[in-house]
Write a structure and sequence with these properties.
Number of domains of chain B: 1
Largest interface: A-B, 58 and 48 residues
CATH topology of chain B: Gyrase A, domain 2
Oligomer: heterodimer
Strand order of the largest sheet of chain A: 11-12-8-7-1-2-3-6-4-19
Shape of chain A: globular
Mean pLDDT of chain B: 97
Strand order of the largest sheet of chain B: 2-3-5-4
Order of helices and strands of chain B: EEEHHEEHE
Helix content of chain B: 10-25%
Helix content of chain A: 25-40%
Largest sheet of chain B: 4 strands, antiparallel
Shape of chain B: elongated
Low-confidence stretches of chain A: none
Strand content of chain B: 25-35%
Low-confidence stretches of chain B: none
Structural class of chain A: alpha+beta
Number of domains of chain A: 2
Number of helices of chain A: 13
């Protein structure tokens, strides 16, 4: 039976590509799928593009490919990356420039058509209300504040790009798992209505889309995380997939981390809602159908995937401007570290009240006590802390108020409670974005999907 | 007896827009049966009453001894507008592991 090996790349914009080297050198992979776009990354890229129309893509793909390409070319490895962001052609230009300078040759494909930022009114006239998927709210409430709107495309254009000889495929927004399902469908000759095989490919893609999270990274547990070997050299997950869809998840020999029933099932359910109907543009997976067999030696076999027909709609996520965040921090040591933070929070709130600043929400957190666990923090040792930091943040529509908020804190060092420290500079206002998930008929989106494959270098 | 979940299970959480989601995994089959019975939507809602302002849904997955738990309206509108340090909700799983449930004392992880 024919098999192909695909390997995990990045899990977000700014993630490490160092572990990919082992997957190429010793892992036998033929493709690396690399996800550069979290839900909110497009908001960051939009800001880049406003400053520079040639930007708007995930810049880390350029040094990543510059470093990995000689090794990849030697081993015949191809890349599928969502690094195109809002500007896949810009990403291709930047990469092609490096390849020309180095004298390397590659065929680079771009997948366009996911952006619907300029098509909101057109889609609404075509009968798509674009209501909020969870709340049912009307999009006109945020229409004037929209920053981006992109549909999640599927694996088909990626498979087509590979069939046309692409060595590197750059996409904008695609379903994360499509970065892997595309190469699998292309290599293994799967049909686009073979729901069970597509569901198997979706499973593999979902397991590999978060860099180290299937191989022992972020293994959420009390104590057991410490038994994961060698985080320093943690290997990203690799899947060997057969024509029938059966897959074995593993990692490159000699790397750190662990692939086991436990690490794999944690990633299987990660950022999934109804596991019996895990939607993607290409197929709907029932995770209840899967069999996971831990074969030992960092190998987990996955079989039994059952798929249902792909949805008639595609998901769109839009982002809209939703005010500004200001934040500030100050630390205090024993004695009374927590109480002094609490008193300082009261003083800052008093200052805001006296200024009459228009603020929508205030968040008060005690770093070292409850900033990550919130109300679920255990108060047993609260009053005995060696030290504690007060972190406050505000949401306001007024950028100036957000910018000035951090300046309220340093004064406390000489005129507030004793033993303060830990100033790390004044934080500038941060723009906030609301996300607007919605649906549209797939034919309205797919009619504009455009693929180009060009030789670079 | 009362047992905190961290002694008998492991968990990972993530975000999608304003929804937080948690996978809760029993280390063994007897524990899974207890989780299925004791970890109810009502108990989860009470445990996360300060952050979750929407519905709680739970799906059991017998094939991987796991519960999929979804909290609606739990992330201050989503990671990109949240004021929280944990804007991505990655630590919500840790907070869940602090929840106590009623469990028999002879579960595999509770016996030496």
């Amino acid at each position: 039976m024919k098999t192909v090996r695909v390997g995990a790349g990045l899990g977000f914009y700014g993630d490490a590509w160092r572990p990919i080297r082992a997957s190429i050198e010793r892992g036998g992979v033929k493709y690396i799928g690399s996800d550069h776009l979290a839900e909110l990354t497009l908001a960051i890229l939009q800001k880049d593009r406003q400053k520079d129309p040639t930007a708007g893509y995930a810049r880390d793909a350029v040094p990543m490919l510059a470093e990995l390409w000689p090794l990849a070319a030697k081993h015949g490895v191809k890349f599928v990356l969502s690094a195109g962001g809002l500007n896949p052609e810009g990403a291709r230009e930047a990469i092609a420039k490096v390849f020309r300078a180095k004298g390397w040759k590659a065929r680079i494909a771009t997948v366009m058509g996911d952006s619907v930022t300029e098509r909101i009114d057109e889609l609404r006239s075509a009968g798509e209300p674009l209501q909020h998927l969870d709340t049912g709210a009307d999009i006109s409430s945020v229409r004037e504040r929209l920053v981006f709107a992109n549909a999640y495309l599927g694996a088909r254009p990626i498979a087509e790009a590979l069939a046309r000889g692409a060595d590197i495929v750059l996409t904008g927004r695609v379903a994360d798992a499509a970065l892997f399902l595309g190469p699998l469908a292309h290599e293994l000759g799967w049909h686009w209505d073979d729901w069970d095989r597509l569901a198997a490919g979706l499973t593999v893609g979902h397991l590999l889309e978060c860099s180290g999270q299937a191989s022992g990274g972020n293994f959420g547990s009390a104590g057991e995380w410490a038994s994961i070997p060698d985080f320093l050299h943690l290997g990203y997950a690799i899947a060997e997939v057969g024509e029938d869809g059966t897959a074995t998840v593993t990692k490159a020999p000699g790397t750190g981390g662990r692939v086991s029933f436990d690490t794999v099932r944690q990633q299987l359910l990660y950022e999934v809602h109804n596991p019996h109907a895990y939607f993607s543009p290409d197929v709907v997976l029932d995770m209840g159908s899967l069999h996971l067999d831990d074969l030992g030696d960092d190998r987990v076999r996955i079989s039994g995937a059952a798929g249902a027909r792909r949805p008639d709609t595609l998901k769109i996520v839009a982002g809209y401007h939703d005010g500004w965040m200001g934040s500030g921090m100050i630390g205090f040591s024993w004695p009374d570290a927590y109480r002094k933070c609490e008193a300082s929070a009261g003083i800052i709130k008093g200052l805001l009240a006296e200024r009459g600043a228009k603020i929508e929400e205030i968040q008060v957190e005690y770093v070292g006590y409850d900033s990550l666990l919130g109300a679920n923090a255990d108060p047993t040792y609260r009053d005995l802390l060696n030290e504690c930091f007060l972190r406050m943040s505000i949401r306001t529509q007024d950028r100036r108020v957000a910018d000035e908020f951090g300046r309220l804190f340093p004064w406390l060092a000489l005129s507030g409670p004793p033993y303060a420290g830990g100033f790390h500079g004044i934080q500038r206002a941060k723009e906030l974005f609301g996300l607007w998930p919605t649906l549209a008929r797939r034919e309205l989106i797919e009619a504009r999907v455009a693929l180009s494959v060009e030789a670079a270098g | 007896m009362k047992v905190p979940l961290w002694k008998i299970a492991h968990a990972r959480s993530g975000d999608k827009a304003d929804r937080a989601d948690i996978g809760l995994f029993a280390w063994d089959a007897p524990t899974y049966a207890v989780l299925k019975r004791e970890v109810t939507a009502e108990r989860i809602a009470a445990h996360f009453t300060h952050i979750c302002h929407g519905a709680v849904q739970i799906w059991p997955l017998d094939n991987i001894l796991a519960l999929k738990i979804v909290l609606d309206s739990a992330l201050q509108g989503g990671a990109a507008r949240s004021l929280r340090t944990d804007n991505l909700g990655k630590n919500i799983a840790a907070a869940l592991l602090r929840m106590e449930i009623e469990a028999p004392a002879d579960l595999p992880r509770l016996t030496p």
